[in-house]
Write a structure and sequence with these properties.
Elements lengths: L4 E2 L4 H5 L7 H12 L1 E4 L2 E4 L9 H16 L3 E6 L9 H14 L7 E3 L4 H13 L3 E4 L3 H7 L17 H13 L8 E4 L14 E5 L13 E3 L5 H7 L4 E5 L6 H11 L5 E5 L11 H9 L14 H7 L3 H11 L7 E2 L1 H15 L2 E2 L1 E2 L2 E6 L8 E6 L9 E6 L2 E5 L19 E4 L4 E9 L5 E9 L15 E2 L2 E2 L4 E8 L26 E9 L11 E4 L3 E5 L9 E7 L3 H8 L1
Parallel strand pairs: 1-12, 3-4, 4-5, 10-11, 13-26, 15-21, 19-22, 24-28
Antiparallel strand pairs: 6-7, 7-8, 8-9, 14-25, 15-18, 16-17, 18-23, 19-20, 20-21, 24-25, 26-27, 27-28
The chain binds adenosine-5'-triphosphate and magnesium ion (MG).
């Protein structure tokens, strides 16, 4: 893993002369100029349905779909389903739902590599007939031995020079189920001394008597990724096949198959994967997190899966903007997670209605306010959005404020409530604390206060009241569960571990705090899952899918400010 933290645009992007043109666009512009693919731009997003999509995939989705849109082209969705043992239709459904939610549309172009199995088989036969593929009987382990090392060339398999007829018969036998798993493979006959390992007679078909989520038991041989991907691109008329850097070594093989099969030849282009600080980004690791119970599932709001981010309350707009902002680059880097958090904060600041919610309720009794009086006060829904209008918040003698907004012995520059001091109650009056009441254990359980009845919505000239705190009416407040999510890992690079540890040793023990009895204003009665709000002075929250009409459940999306930055600065 590369360590530099990428705080802005990718380097390649910054260095290109034309503004807002990334290196992929430069390549496309070159193709349009040379006319290699005419004036067509046709991309695809090719997920393997073996897990849920994550924010890294969002980068690839945004790139492929946006390029198609920018150039007036098309983008396909293709499931790269060549591995029957790990793939499930549950994943196909979740992937489609996630891409739609992100706001991209593949229209009727939903393809499956498994739909091409017959054609791929015919192409394998074509290679055999051209003397470019053979059936090999080396075991996987022997195969590795024969491949040689970085410094030494490989050895020829003893099966390399079978006759074309024998290869055709054996390959037909493989398809017919005549041989057990692992006993034979079909290999491309390329060059065992090639400096690039992937060109040393790579396996292109293997025997797997396994049920496939789409083709059922029709096949017991399956093509390898390298023998599927480029050919699928070719069949769909893809022009630029954009993938991540780990496939750079595979490009010569991609090109070799297109050339030898004499088929439409797309251009493979590689870009750097997205990694985020305080996160892991691999389906395998997500499976560990889910299976070992560190999170509640693929859509746990702490997961960087699209479904996790959606449940947490992230907006698709903020994720798309984030992907645009980080840009594409050829250099592996780790993006600071605060950049993602800032994008959702910025979007929600513009669109989220404000409400008052008290997470740690402390009862306040206003001694000079009648017990039977209710005043309906007007509160602004969103100061950033004039069209959002106002709502009513009831004001009564008994209120809740947040425990953190009271200090018995105030520290310097504490502008909230303390014995004898005044603050403004948001949208309401100036309040003064007269006394604090304790329980038997000595904890403060209630404040006795008074209000200045002349100060409703007015700032008296004779005194300066700096603090403004939020509150809810004790009689009207709704009891809510609030889930305070924090980063899942407590270190910037959880993948970096000491010997004998794995990434789970860096899990943040405080990544979830559940508040059972928060008090929220009555306008939140009847909220629906996935609605989002700003709890004034606290943060942005979304309604979780576990919510009920009796008891709303809220997830913290992000705090109002980057609290981790503050912690690091002060410590
Ligand atoms: P993982 O490592 O999480 O298992 P993967 O690469 O195996 O991911 P695929 O389903 O094969 O997942 O990926 C589909 C597409 O998304 C590929 O083109 C892949 O290159 C791209 N992709 C995967 N992870 C990232 C990432 N972190 N950043 C950008 N693109 C990614
Ligand atoms: Mg993969």
């Amino acid at each position: 893993m590369v360590e530099n933290v990428n705080l802005g645009k990718g380097e390649d992007q910054a260095s290109t002369p034309e503004k807002h043109i990334n290196f992929v666009e430069e390549i496309i512009n070159g193709h349009l100029k040379s006319g290699r693919f005419g004036q067509i731009v046709h991309t695809r997003f090719p997920p393997e349905p073996n897990g849920y999509l994550h924010i890294g995939h969002a980068k690839s989705i945004a790139l492929n779909f946006s390029l198609a849109e920018k150039y007036g082209g098309l983008c396909n969705l293709r499931f790269d389903d060549t591995n029957p043992s790990k793939e499930e239709s549950e994943y196909v459904d979740s992937i489609k739902a996630d891409i739609k939610w992100l706001g991209f549309d593949w229209e009727d172009r939903e393809y499956y590599a498994s739909d091409y199995f017959e054609q791929l088989y015919a192409w394998a036969v074509k290679l055999i007939k051209a003397g470019l593929a053979y059936v090999c009987e080396l075991s996987a382990e022997e195969g590795r031995e024969y491949r040689g090392t970085l410094t030494e060339p490989g050895k020829h398999s003893p099966y390399r020079n079978r006759s074309i007829k024998e290869n055709l018969d054996l390959f037909a036998g493989m398809r017919a189920g005549a041989f057990p798993d692992g006993s034979k493979t079909l290999k491309a006959k390329i060059d065992m001394a090639h400096p690039n390992f992937t060109m040393r007679d790579p396996v292109i078909y293997r025997i797997l008597h396994d049920h496939h989520h789409r083709t059922g038991d029709k096949w017991c041989i399956y093509p390898m990724y390298d023998f599927t991907h480029g050919q699928s691109d070719s069949l769909e008329g893809i022009t630029q096949s954009i993938c991540t850097l780990e496939f750079e070594n595979h490009r010569p093989l991609y090109d070799w198959f297109c050339e030898k099969l004499e088929i439409h030849h797309p251009q493979q282009i590689e870009f750097a994967r997205l990694n985020l600080t305080y996160m892991v980004m691999s389906k395998r690791k997500f499976l560990t997190l889910v299976n070992e119970g560190h999170v509640s599932g693929w859509d746990d709001p702490r997961m960087p899966t699209i479904s996790g981010l959606r449940r947490r309350g992230y907006t698709p707009e903020s994720i798309r903007k984030f992907c645009e902002y980080i840009g594409v680059s050829k250099n592996n880097s780790v993006v600071d997670v605060t950049i993602l958090e800032n994008h959702v904060r910025e979007h929600l600041n513009a669109v989220a209605p404000r409400v008052m919610a008290v997470l740690k309720p402390l009862k306040v009794v206003i001694e000079n306010y009648p017990a039977d009086k209710i005043e309906n006060l007007e509160a602004v829904n969103n100061p950033e959005d004039e069209t959002a209008g106002n709502r009513i918040v009831p004001f009564t003698r008994e209120l809740y404020i947040d425990h953190d907004d009271f200090m018995e012995v105030p520290v310097k520059k504490y502008f909230r409530l303390a014995p004898g001091t005044e603050v403004r109650l948001r949208y309401a009056y100036i309040i003064k604390c007269e006394s604090a009441i304790r329980d038997e254990a000595g904890n403060i359980v209630e404040l006795r206060c008074s209000i200045d009845l002349d100060t409703l919505g007015k700032q008296p000239l004779d005194r300066r009241v700096k603090g403004v705190i939020h509150w809810v009416s004790a009689d009207h407040a709704i009891d809510a569960q609030v889930r305070l999510y924090d980063r899942l890992f407590s270190v910037e690079h959880p993948d970096k571990v000491e010997e004998g540890e794995d990434f789970t040793s860096h899990l943040n023990p405080d990544s979830l705090e559940i508040i059972e009895h928060a008090k929220v204003e009555p306008s939140l009665l009847g909220v629906k899952a996935s609605e989002r709000f700003q709890f004034e002075r606290v943060g942005y929250f979304s309604v979780d899918k576990d919510t009920t009409p009796e008891k709303p459940v809220f997830n913290r999306i992000v705090s109002l400010r980057d609290s981790w930055a503050r912690i690091t600065r002060n410590s």
